[in-house]
Amino acid sequence: MSTKKYRYPSVLTIAGFDGSGGAGIQADIKTISALGCYATSALTALPVQNTQGVRAIYPIPYQAVQEQLETILDDIFPEAIKIGMVHTGELVDTIVDTLASYPRAPVVFDPVMVATSGDKLIEDKTITTIVERLFPIAAVLTPNMDEAAILAEMPVHTLDDMYIAGAKIRKLGCRSVLLKGGHLDAQRLTSLYFDAQGAVHEFSFDKFETNNTHGSGCTLSSAIASYIALGKNLLEAVHKGQEYVHQAILHGSDVQVGKGNGPLNHFFNPQQLTKYDLV
């Protein structure tokens, strides 16, 4: 029997809960696992929700968030980190200050700021703290068009708007920005990736009708983090992450889960856990 030891590439998700399994930390864990990485997690909030909406949100004490992070980082240090919705400035400070005590790992930040209904989910002062503290540690930021409109302080309705807004957001201090075009009124949906050198890359996919897109933003940011953990560069990770989400939506488009907006099919092509030599 061989005595050789291996390790799994790990991804840490810092996010909220979704008991219906389609979004939040559950979607993150499914995505990370489906792509062959090892998922660890730290819970930031406890929303009570299903496919039809959120009924209540219970906060997690900041000390508990800090202790969760320290416990994981001390033991299973990740190749990449995904950060989801952070709803208070104090939570931002807790996460950033805790991560600062450890070696840097690439961070993918999904800035969840606007509900599907169009309602803003966080206060302006929290957005300011996010820009000042989270943006500088983010390798990739993944706003949708509504979130881009808040960050760039301009309407974002067209592809031309996206070009202007994405350039503005990248200048706020993050390394790169993937501006998602899922809300475009077009037959082909185009997302724009503004890389660290200032170049812009277009990614387009055919639009198809389905209500099963619950958790697509969580899934995308986790997929990008997973591909980074698997050794892809940022552009490759962004490209492959979008392809994964497109296929996950496609393969789940004809399935009914719950009475509202259903989840993606995260396991349309599950990969075995990747094993690397233990160094």
UniProtKB/TrEMBL annotation:
NCBIfam families the record matches: HMP-P_kinase (TIGR00097)
Pathway in which the depicted protein is active: Cofactor biosynthesis; thiamine diphosphate biosynthesis
Gene Ontology annotations for the cellular component aspect, listed alphabetically: cytosol
Enzyme class: transferase
InterPro entries with a match to the protein in the record: HMP/HMP-P_kinase_dom, PM/HMP-P_kinase-1, Ribokinase-like
Keyword annotations from UniProtKB, A to Z: ATP-binding, Kinase, Nucleotide-binding, Transferase
Entry-linked SUPFAM superfamilies: Ribokinase-like (SSF53613)
Protein name per the record: hydroxymethylpyrimidine kinase
Superkingdom classification of source: Bacteria
GO molecular function, one term: phosphomethylpyrimidine kinase activity
EC number: 2.7.1.49
Coiled-coil residue windows: none
Domain Pyridoxamine kinase/Phosphomethylpyrimidine kinase: 18-265
Matching Pfam families: Phos_pyr_kin
GO biological process: thiamine biosynthetic process
Species assigned in the record: Parapedobacter koreensis
